[in-house]
Specification:
With about 575 residues, the protein is of the alpha/beta class. The protein is built from 25 helices and 13 strands. Strands 2-3-1-4-11 form a 5-stranded mixed beta sheet. Helix 13 packs parallel to helix 23, helix 14 packs parallel to helix 15 and helix 23 packs antiparallel against helix 24.
C-alpha cells in the first residue's frame, strides 16, 4: 500500500476514477496517492510497480453491534483491498466493554486497530495507542487535509496525537433531516389511534402509552423499556437533561447565560424522571428486564412490535428501526410498528434534542502498540480519506447504489432505495464502513456540493420516504422528522462530555464513582414499591453527597469557558 497502485486492479480503478471525475467536476482537493520515484530507468511507477503483498490486520470495535467480518468479504472492503492490499478482520464487542478492554490492558495484547469507545481513557492511560504524529506527517496527506483544522484539539497534553476522531466536519455543515440523536419514541399505531395528537410533555407521552395499552390488553404489550446495558446506561440516566430542554452534554447541563456547568444526577429533575418510571412499573407498564437485558436483547424487543415506547438516541436503535422498516416495505400494514420520534420535555418548554455543530474529541480509532505494521495501516486510512473513497464508503458505486443527474447532483432511484435493506448494507459494506472509521463527519459536504451522507441529501431523503412516512409527517405539518424539533442553539463547547479527562484524574474518578452509584440506585428506585421510593431516594442522595460534585462542576465550567474563548 505504500502509496502504490496495483496494475491488476486498473480496470476497477478506471471505473472509479471516471465516476469520481464525472461526480466531482474536477473540484476534488484531496492529495493524490503517489508512487515511489525510485524505479529503474526513470519510468513511471504505475508502469513498473508490483502489487503489494496482501495483509490482514485485526480491528476491535467497542461500539459495534454487528456480525464479525473480514472487510474484504464486503464490496467496499474488497475494492479497498484491491487498492491497498489491506484487509481488516473486524471483531465487535460482545459482553461488557470495560471487562474486554481491561483484559487487553492486563495482558498488554491488543488488536492492530482499536476503537475503545467509552473506555478510551483507560486505553490512553495504559499507553496502548502509539503516537500518530510522525506517521501522519510522512504518510497522511489526506489525513492532514481532512483533520488539519482539528489537529490542535486532537492533541493530548503531551502534544501528541493518539487517535483519529469521527465527527470532524469537512466543507459546509448540513443538518440532518432524520433524528439520529435523542427522542422519546412511540409506535406509529399509538399516534394513529389517538388521532395524531401534539405530544409535548412527559405526562402527555406516558398517558398516550397508558391509554393504548389499556385498550389492547389482549396483545400482551410492553408500555416502556429502557436501555441500561454496560456503557449504554446513559440512555436511562440522560433523559432528565433533555426533559429540562438541554442537549446531550453528558454529565452536566450548561447554563446558557452564565456558562456554569451543573450536574443533574441528584437533581429534582432526575427524581421526577425516576418517579415517573416507578409509577409505570407499579402499573405493570415498565419492562423490569430493562435492568438486566443486554443490548442485543433490547434491540430484539424493539424489533418485536410489542414495545410501545422508549427513550433513546436514533443512532443507537438504527438496527431495530431498520428491521421494522424493511418489514413495512414488504407489508405496508407493518408500518404501524415503526417508531416515531417526539420532542418531549417536562412542561412543554423549548426542546434541544438536535445536536448543534460540535467536535467529539474523546472518541476515535487508534493504532495500538501491538500493531504489526503501523505504516500500512496509516496508509490505508489515508487512502480511505481520499474523496473518491469517501464517496464509495458513503454512496457506494455509481449505477448500482446511486446516480448522478445532469447537474452533478447525487441521488438514488426508488429501486436502489428499496434494495438497500439491512442484508444488502451488510453484504455491500455500508454497515461496516458507515461509522467507526476516520472519515468525513456525517454532516459534511463533498467538494462538489453534494452531501457526504446520502440521508442528508434532500433528494435522497424525500425519495426514501414511504407513503406512510409522508402521511404521518403530513399529519404533523412537517416534511422532515427534524422539523418536529426545535433548532439547536449555538454551543461552542458542545458536547461537554467530549472534554478529555486524564485517566486517574479527579474528574475522571468522579465520573466513575458517579456512574457506579447511578447504576446501583436507579434500578432500586424504579422497581421499588411506590411508598418506598422516597426513602431510597434519600439514601441515594446521602451517598451522592459524599462525592466532590462542586470540584467536578468547577472543572467542567472552566473547560467550557476555555472552549467558548477559543471559538471567538
Amino acid at each position: 500500500m505504500k502509496k502504490h497502485w496495483s496494475i491488476t486492479t486498473a480496470s476497477v480503478l478506471l471505473v472509479f476514477s471516471l465516476a469520481a471525475s464525472a461526480c466531482t467536476g474536477g473540484g476534488n482537493k484531496e492529495e493524490p496517492t503517489k508512487a515511489p520515484d525510485s524505479n529503474a530507468g526513470g519510468q513511471q511507477a504505475e508502469e513498473t510497480e508490483k502489487p503489494l503483498d496482501k495483509v490482514t490486520f485485526t480491528y476491535f470495535n467497542g461500539a459495534g453491534a454487528a456480525k464479525d467480518v473480514n472487510t474484504n468479504e464486503t464490496t467496499i472492503g474488497k475494492l479497498l483491498e484491491d487498492q491497498t492490499g489491506v484487509n481488516f478482520k473486524i471483531e465487535n464487542l460482545v459482553g461488557d466493554l470495560n471487562t474486554k478492554i481491561g483484559t487487553m490492558i492486563a495482558s498488554n495484547k491488543y488488536p492492530d486497530v482499536l476503537i475503545p469507545d467509552a473506555a478510551i481513557d483507560e486505553v490512553l492511560g495504559a499507553g496502548a495507542f502509539i503516537d500518530l504524529t510522525d506517521l501522519i506527517e510522512e504518510h497522511g496527506p489526506n489525513i492532514k487535509r481532512v483533520y488539519g483544522p482539528y489537529f490542535n484539539q486532537m492533541k493530548a497534553e503531551d502534544g501528541k496525537i493518539y487517535f483519529l476522531p469521527f465527527s470532524n466536519v469537512v466543507g459546509e455543515y448540513i443538518p440532518d433531516p432524520n433524528i439520529n440523536q435523542g427522542a422519546f419514541w412511540v409506535q406509529r399505531r399509538v399516534l394513529k389511534e389517538a388521532g395524531y395528537p401534539q405530544i409535548k410533555t412527559l405526562d402527555e407521552y406516558f398517558n398516550l402509552v397508558r391509554d393504548y395499552a389499556a385498550k389492547h390488553k389482549e396483545e400482551d404489550l410492553t408500555g416502556f423499556v429502557s436501555l441500561t446495558h454496560d456503557w449504554r446506561f446513559f440512555a436511562t440516566s440522560n433523559p432528565p437533561m433533555h426533559l429540562q430542554g438541554y442537549p446531550n452534554d453528558g454529565e452536566v447541563i450548561v447554563d446558557m447565560n452564565t456558562f456554569e456547568a451543573k450536574t443533574y444526577s441528584s437533581s429534582d429533575a432526575t427524581k421526577k424522571w425516576l418517579s415517573e418510571l416507578n409509577k409505570l412499573n407499579a402499573e405493570g407498564l415498565f419492562d423490569k428486564s430493562s435492568f438486566v437485558d443486554n443490548y442485543d436483547q433490547y434491540l430484539a424487543k424493539l424489533s418485536s412490535g410489542k414495545v410501545l415506547g422508549f427513550f433513546d438516541y436514533g443512532w443507537q436503535i438504527g438496527n431495530a428501526q431498520n428491521v421494522l422498516k424493511d418489514a413495512a416495505k414488504a407489508d405496508p400494514a407493518k408500518d404501524d410498528f415503526v417508531y416515531f420520534p417526539l420532542p418531549v420535555t417536562f412542561d412543554g418548554q423549548k426542546d434541544q434534542y438536535l445536536d448543534p455543530p460540535g467536535f467529539v474529541k474523546n472518541r476515535g480509532m487508534g493504532i495500538t502498540v501491538s500493531a504489526k505494521d503501523p505504516v500500512r495501516i496509516i496508509q490505508y486510512i489515508d487512502n480511505l480519506l481520499k474523496e473518491e473513497n469517501q464517496i464509495l464508503k458513503s454512496w457506494g458505486v455509481q449505477g448500482e447504489t446511486y446516480e448522478v443527474d445532469a447537474n452533478g447532483r447525487f441521488y438514488r432511484t426508488a429501486e436502489q432505495i428499496k434494495k438497500i435493506d439491512e442484508p444488502f448494507r451488510e453484504k455491500f459494506g455500508f454497515k461496516y464502513y458507515d461509522w467507526n472509521w476516520p472519515q468525513y463527519g456525517t454532516n459534511s459536504t463533498l467538494s462538489n456540493g453534494n452531501a457526504f451522507a446520502p440521508g442528508l441529501q434532500p433528494e435522497v431523503f424525500q425519495m426514501s420516504l414511504t407513503d406512510a412516512d409522508k402521511e404521518i409527517l403530513g399529519k404533523y405539518g412537517v416534511q422532515t422528522y427534524a422539523a418536529m424539533f426545535a433548532a439547536p442553539d449555538k454551543r461552542p463547547w458542545y458536547p461537554a462530555w467530549g472534554i478529555p479527562k486524564e485517566q486517574g484524574s479527579e474528574p475522571q474518578i468522579y465520573e466513575t464513582k458517579k456512574t457506579e452509584l447511578v447504576k446501583k440506585y436507579f434500578p432500586k428506585l424504579v422497581l421499588a414499591k411506590t411508598d418506598e421510593f422516597e426513602s431510597i431516594w434519600n439514601e441515594y442522595l446521602g451517598e451522592f453527597g459524599k462525592l466532590d460534585t462542586a470540584a467536578y462542576e468547577q472543572f467542567v465550567t472552566a473547560e467550557v469557558k476555555k472552549l467558548i474563548e477559543a471559538a471567538q
